[in-house]
# Entry
Amino acid sequence: MNETVISYGLYLVIAIAMTIWVAKTLHKSGRIFLVECFRGNQELADSVNHLLVVGFYLVNIGFVSLYLKTDTEVIGAQGVFEGLSGKMGVVLLMLGGMHFFNLYVFTKMRRRAALAQMAPPIPPMAQV
Amino acid sequence: MIMQTLTVFYDAHCGLCSRFRRWMQDQPSYVRLEFVPYDSALAKERCPQIGSLRADEEIVVMSDEGSLWQGAAAWVTCLWALCEYREWSARLAHPTMQAMARRVVHWVSGNRIRLSGLLRLTPDELQREANVGSCEDGACRVDAEG
# Structure
């Protein structure tokens, strides 16, 4: 087993562990947003939450797999660390981007739900 | 009580108002929308006070519970009824925006016939005479989404 294979192994373990951690955070903290969006319909909120997390896993693990291969040969412990940090940096930025995108979707859904409940913004001038 | 229907008393003699009526009818809305010419018998039946409101000067809208809005407030309420523009209605309802909106709406209302002529917009009244109107009994309706 050479250094390149060790890098690949470490990369996969760390990247997938990070993906799982972010997905779990999203799943746990996103639920309350969704319950509010669906006016307390917990079953629907849980279903959408699960579907979102599945999508999150698919996109991220797909990216991690595609991004595995390195073109330069890894030499020594220094090479392992350098190669790994470069790859992990990109994967973490990708995870961060996906996470913010999910937050954006949650906020948009919440705002739409709040708008549907909104009363006319100007009180009536007269009543007949 | 939640509003179910919003009645818009518009000017069917004005091309700009009729164009706005058609545009609003094509938009997805949160509440059912009804468009009634302000000087029709149906308008008097729906809102007996319409004569004293000077609806010929500023647009009047009425909810099914009998709440009335006029001028800039009526425009904001029209936007509030539309799915795509509710967020804008909240922005325009802000007091500083309302002061500006009132001036703009007042100017547009005062010059609506001239503007319609400049933009070559046909009023509903003329279309109805030519039997191409879509609103048979004087009122045009559009149901809420969903």
User: Anything to note?
Assistant: The first strand of chain A starts at residue 126 and ends at 127.
